[in-house]
Amino acid sequence: xxxxxxxxxxxxxxxxxxxxxxxxxxxxxxxxxxxxxxxxxxxxxxxxxxxxxxxxxxxxxxxxxxxxxxxxxxxxxxxxxxxxxxxxxxxxxxxxxxxxxxxxxxxxxxxxxxxxxxxxxxxxxxxxxxxxxxxxxxxxxxxxxxxxxxxxxxxxxxxxxxxxxxxxxxxxxxxxxxxxxxxxxxxxxxxxxxxxxxxxxxxxxxxxxxxxxxxxxxxxxxxxxxxxxxxxxxxxxxxxxxxxxxxxxxxxxxxxxxxxxxxxxxxxxxxxxxxxxxxxxxxxxxxxxxxxxxxxxxxxxxxxxxxxxxxxxxxxxxxxxxxxxxxxxxxxxxxxxxxxxxxxxxxxxxxxxxxxxxxxxxxxxxxxxxxxxxxxxxxxxxxxxxxxxxxxxxxxxxxxxxxxxxxxxxxxxxxxxxxxxxxxxxxxxxxxxxxxxxxxxxxxxxxxxxxxxxxxxxxxxxxxxxxxxxxxxxxxxxxxxxxxxxxxxxx
Length: 491
Hints:
Shape: extended
Number of helices: 24
Number of strands: 6
Low-confidence stretches: 1-42
Distance between the termini: 120 Å
Strand order of the largest sheet: 1-2
Mean pLDDT: 86
Strand content: under 5%
Helix content: 55-70%
Structural class: mainly alpha
């Protein structure tokens, strides 16, 4: 008996249902192809399968019906796939773009990968201009300069620029392009570029490629990033090449490396993944500051402002040792409270030890470095993110009136202890919201704090009595500075 349900396009005559015996089913499976009754070849296997399932057969159990269903599906799917073989042939020409990394126990594959990467980096290094080739390039540029000179600066026009490119050799070909010339041209009335600016551009490009190759040699994973141990090895081997670090004792090397590496990871790894992209290292200015120590005549002022200089590293480590009164190599909350002017509130220090990594309630040198970097760079987004996390006591992603009041109450208590008249929280709260101008008038997000360019002032008001006093008396301090300046000018 056939079902009265419509299962496909209607025709004047419909074939009888397929036989249901095993022998008949085997015969059906050997047929080359079943055509749809109406000539619709795209629907034949669906219609046959539907008819089979729609035909009741009490003699078959559920298992036999499932087997029959799978046999039919496999047969017609195989035929359909075979008919599309030519259409899918183009996919076989797609090159392989994913290669599995060798497992830890695949020693031979790991060695092969390391050697191939080393050969690749050596080849890339040979493609860079060496000192002799750079001197030759400068000679050619100077020889083809285009008059008149602007002051003492030699210029070159596009025609001579192309002539130098032809004579400079294949390694320089990438620099003598129209887009490079257009990038460097500014306001010259003759349409020329400065020879010195172009040469500095070439030098910068060569330096970036050299540095990238140098950093890639320490990329153990070969994935374009450095782990903390990789960057430590890079800086440790870099120390002997930096004249400004000649005076460092070898016993201090490990502390210096930790101090230097921490700045990279604090600012370039905000999510604390434990790795930094080599591209990000090259894009930031930290590597420039580090390699600035190659200058044997670096001024004292530059050394004091450079985090990577020997005086700066010794200052930070010396402060840590001075705070460590019990000489156990760690800082307790009480010891850290004497940091700076010793006017940070206990409420803020409590949050530091709640949120930051500690060991049995004490802070190690690495955690201390994060703390120092945050407080010394409060205008930077990474530093504001660090402090914002501490201020966000409810972990809601924003600061509300309750959060601000929670921290400012501690400032008011310190003012009472020091004999000062406490300032009204309502006034301070209004000032903070006026400075930040958040999108939501009742909440201050981290992005609001960054966008306002007032994040350093706001955080200082909330965590440090000395910082709040300086802010509160800023007008008097400015007037006093102006008077002192006038007195010096009179003398």
